[in-house]
Amino acid sequence: MALYEHVFLARQDVSAQQVDALVEQYKGVIEANGGKVGRVENWGLKSLTYRIKKNRKAHYALMDIDAPAAAVQEMERQMRINEDVLRYMTIAVEAHEEGPSAMMQKRDRDDRPRRDGDDRGPRRDFGDRGPRRDFGDRPPRGDRPPREDRA
Predict the structure, then answer these.
(1) What's the rounded Cα separation, in Å, for the pair 89 and 10?
(2) CA–CA distance, 55 with 86 (Å, rounded to integer)
(3) Which residues contact 96 (CB under 8 A, 6 or more apart)?
(4) Rounded CA gap, 51 and 127, in Å?
(5) Rounded CA gap, 41 and 61, in Å?
(6) If we measure between CA atoms, which residue out of 95, 107, 100 comes closest to residue 42?
(7) Pairing mode, if any, of strands 85-93 and 55-67?
(8) For the whole model, what pTM was predicted?
(9) Cα separation of 125 and 149, whole Å?
């Protein structure tokens, strides 16, 4: 049997319990056709880069599958019929990853760059006037009249 990673996106207006029910439904399809499902991860409700069928968000779910190709094809056929599934993608892999996927791993707070500017050097205080502009040796523009609010 071949190894697959399968990700699908469910509509934003379905509940998390309905997403879990979809996962169980497709898990049953795989097992009925002689395969087995390993790790299942629910990545939650995430924003989409672009709208898909008028949805701006979607529930993401990942399944690690060890099944024959016919089982995966039957699962994908049923996903095409289901209106709650917006998109799906199945990828054949050499081996399943151990532990949580990259989406589930939390980055350590110490690994992130600091936001207070310590890694960029000290901040300069320009007061109310803002940073000074240096135009070098460029002469002032004489091709337009002065603005009336500066007079």
Answers:
(1) 12
(2) 9
(3) 3, 5, 38, 39, 64, 66
(4) 44
(5) 6
(6) 100
(7) unpaired
(8) 0.67
(9) 27
Count how many residues are written for the chain: 151
Distance CA(33)–CA(56), nearest Å, equals 34
In the chain, what are the domain boundaries? 2-93
**pLDDT tens digit string along 6-57?**
999 999 999 999 999 999 999 999 999 999 999 999 998 999 999 999 999 9
CATH for 2-93 is 3.30.70.60
Alpha helices for the chain (secondary structure H): 16-32, 69-81
Residue whose entry in the numeric block shows the structure tokens 């289901």: 82
Rama region for 140: left / alpha / beta (φ>0; ψ in -120 to 50; rest):
beta
Find all residues with CB under 8 Å of 17, minimum gap 6, and list them. Answer: none
